[in-house]
Description:
By secondary structure, the chain is an alpha/beta fold. 43% of the residues lie in helices and 17% in strands.
Amino acid sequence: MKKFLALFLAVLMIATCAATLSSCKKDSGTIKIGLSGPLTGPAASYGIAVANSAKLAVEEINAAGGLNGIKFELLSTDDAHDASKVATNYAAMEADGMQVALGCVTSGPCLEFAKLSKDANLFFLTPSASANDVVKENNAYQMCFADGNQGTYAANYVKSLYEANTLGKLGILYKSDDNYSTGLYEQFMATIPTALKDSAVVATFTGDEATVDFTSQVAQLQECTFIFMPIYYTPAAAFMSKAVGKVANSATYYGCDGFDGIDTSVEGFDITAIPQKVSMLSHFNSSATTGKAADYIKAYKAKYPDAPLNQFGASAYDCVYAIYYAMKTAIDAGKEITADISATDLCEILKEQFNGGFTYTNSVTGTGTVKWASTGFVEKEAVAYVIKEAN
């Protein structure tokens, strides 16, 4: 009789487990998050920070119990900022069970990732691929500001200085054969007041930025007191070095996310030798001493003391937590998410959240509150971050 009772109870438990998946699967298994980024090559400082920060967030979530017991796992691959490597990375992560993703770190590779993920209906939230077309399809979202939106935010900041009579003479330097630079420039010019647009001094450059001398551009902009530079940090550093002693020491240099790393990642460039103020549009204050951003900085430096720390990593940290909280909100609303949920089913659940007013609070980037438009563009406050004050 005892043997029969034990057998009966065992069968009953198996039947109950099969009938109610949540009772057996919510306490085990993993949901796998894919990431393709430059872990080697010229953009490695971005990719390493993103991978490190995403891993940090995953470890924190898992240590706190995961998603109703389900743990997260990061599948991190190296694309070396080369779009041709993305298909191989994608296939490898898909074979390894990728169910949701952070896409890619840089825009070129992420445009390729977007094509692949559309066909698979895989949800991705990129921390840093800012091209507008990255979120063209309805499975794609950004934690970073899109290029066009960065231009608008930068223009609104400059407009506020202009209206307060603290701007002075506006100069602009951009790379006219680069999509990132021209996209920011065009949106910036479309947003600033007409009077300011008509009086601005505009200088351009093209080609291999490593060979540009910048003598003529410095001559064009040397009377300007505020110089907007929607370019990457390498040519920006070259211009600043060439402009020492020519552009007024009281002038301000202002860039967008391409400036991130200018103080640490340009070989042979000493930013302290630049007398002007250097600042940038950002959504992260890497010098924060209070709040969630400060907590992230402390945890990141403790785990990765010798690794790069930048807004791209902070954004990746937010990406993982935003996906986690969106899943949690969906479960609280009655949706079922198990460890073996398919990518397409999870995509539909997450799209419903991100398109339906889901708000991620207590973020590291922005000022603490992040939302998304149905277009995939992020909605949060920008930060005018000072990289270096004037000497």
